[in-house]
Amino acid sequence: MSMILIISLIFGGFVALMVWQVYRFFNAVPDENRQFLDSPPLGFRLAWPFIQAMVHYVGHLFSETALQMAAARLKRGGAEYIVNAKQFLAVRLVSAIFFALFSALLGSMLGSAGLLFSLVLAIGGFYYPELWLREKTARRQNEMLRSLPFYLDVITLSVEAGSNLTGGMTQAVQKTPDTVLRREISRVLRDIRAGKTRAESLRDLAERAGSAQVKMVVASLIQAEKTGASLGPILRAQSDQLRTQRFQRAEKLAMEAPVKMLGPLVMFIFPTTFFVLGFLIMSKAILQGVLSWPPLVWAWQWPAGM
């Protein structure tokens, strides 16, 4: 038997052993029942076997403080039914590893700089899921603040027509299109039907929203319920105040727009404008003989003389 055949058999056996070990590694991870959970984003789905393996083998090392903070951020971002706290922390680790491996492949030709490049991308990959969650949270809060005055108006009309707060929220859910706030109010109604008090359900809503405006409205409603005050004037005042704040926030963003445009204006638009004007001035000066430096004139007339 030749040496090449022996080496090939040894290498084939090693590859088969590695494939078997990888299969056993992932096969030992228990399946998750996601029947009542939301579908994760595409990037999460592509790396889902690695995320589940990370949770299974490393999840017990996560601290309770980190898990509680991650769970609170997921709740504010409306992603608590997409991934749990352990899966989110595992996503950050898997993302860091993937970014590091990918950058190592690209940076292998950079020599000593490739290690630094891999380290920087690994840190960026570790924080990328956090940035995704922050963006999702901010987008969710902005959508809730835009629709909150309208929902308060619907609840106000129901309350002034003789209904209570729960009936007003039920009308708001039934008579409005699907939005983030509508889903949150529906969850409040489900919590009330499940046995929670109305004040506790509203506090959970404020915690999930993570917005100062929603917390202010919830605090007013709970205070009015405790004191027995009329809900109609309170809801109407809250709605007017939220509209005023929304208008002021829009004015602030409009005033910030010219300042934010200065960067692109100075870096991209001004240099292009100066280049075009300088080209026209220089060409006219050369044609009129103002600029008579021979290399410049030769470079200017060279295409025509070819």
From TrEMBL:
The transmembrane residues are 5-26, 88-107, 113-133, 265-287
InterPro entries, per database record: T2SS_GspF_dom, T2SS_GspF_sf
Keywords, ordered alphabetically: Cell membrane, Membrane, Transmembrane, Transmembrane helix
Type II secretion system protein GspF domain location: 152-277
> Superkingdom of this entry's organism?
Bacteria
* Membrane-protein topology: Multi-pass membrane protein
Q: Where in the cell is it found?
A: Cell membrane
Q: Its GO CC terms?
A: plasma membrane
A Pfam family in this protein? T2SSF
Database matches in PANTHER family: INTEGRAL MEMBRANE PROTEIN-RELATED, PILUS ASSEMBLE PROTEIN
Q: What is the name attached to this protein's record? A: Type II secretion system protein GspF domain-containing protein
- Could you read off the lineage of the organism from its UniProt record? Bacteria, Pseudomonadati, Pseudomonadota, Gammaproteobacteria, Chromatiales
